[in-house]
Amino acid sequence: MDEALASGHRLGRYEILGFVGRGGMSSVYRARLSGPGQASKQVALKLIHRELARQRDFILMFLDEMRVAMAMEHRNIVQTFDAGTQGEDHFLVMEYVDGCSLRQLLDLAHGDPLPLDVPAFIAMEACAALRYAHQLRPEGVIHRDVSPGNLLLSTQGDVKLADFGVAKAAGRLSSTAANAFKGKLGYVAPEQARGEVEPKSDLFSLGAILYELVSGQPLRAQPTLEEARRPPALPASPGLPAALAPLILACLAPTPAARPDDDELHRRLREAHRALAPSAQEPHRRLQEQLAARRGAARADAARLERAMLDQVLELPTDPAAAPPATARAEHTLPLAPAPDAPRAGSRARVLVLAAIALG
After folding, report:
1. Known catalytic residue: 64?
2. For residue 121, what are the CA distances in angstroms to 105, 111, 270, 276?
3. What is the pTM of this model?
4. How high is the pLDDT of residue 56?
């Protein structure tokens, strides 16, 4: 596994500011491009893993991604500004989206559903990105990995589709894996899992996301490839909201021919959103507020956990020979592994204080 680049490391004109995350083919960093005087711009830098960069097929896939991504310019697609090579390092430079992924938002929700107009707006904006990509001239682009992790939500209420790295475009530089399955099994269309991808396969994935957003349950729970190749087994009465149920079920149709096309789906999502949205609130502002509320609730949960830990610290005896105090808050007791030697008086409390501060 590659070592993470340290802050201050430079790749060409870009200075690494921090590590964001690691994926199957690349790691993402927050970086800075400095200009004349005090001018600077934050960007996201995607670095191909070195063990893969030594393989010719992966370099050709990187060139594919660079060519496809740099050709795209749409407000709902994460923009790619630049690409470069430095020694063994191959990287893409992309727009830095300050916010979180839809996956992270779902994880923050803890089963608390979003107001229905918000999923409708997210799906409508994602559909606009797919419509642009599918109709891009001279070659339409199929994303092939539409999933919550690749939908980014900015703190300004924007929705942006990221990572066309597994996109299948006509005229690919590399065709060695053109028919191989790529994507996430919980969201792929049956034909895509069989290696037969087309634009409406992306719309199935969008329908799977919308299903999860409004039902609170994933379309498929830990599926195998064989299960993903079959149409999803929906309950007879899935309990979906009336305003969105026909759209979701149309996207999840077993065959591409039975699904709406990009233009029809976008129109129907726009109509559904208009019917669901509060009349006085702008949709970007609405998403911005929902995102801020859930992130704030997550911070409050973390603060409560820290306070509970500190309460336990205060109740711990500093004399190792003393019996533990009687307390009614047994549900917050922290299991501690026994130390090989008896600690000095007070050291146990100090260790837990440091742990609580680190978690905070």
Report:
1. no
2. 15, 19, 8, 10
3. 0.79
4. 82
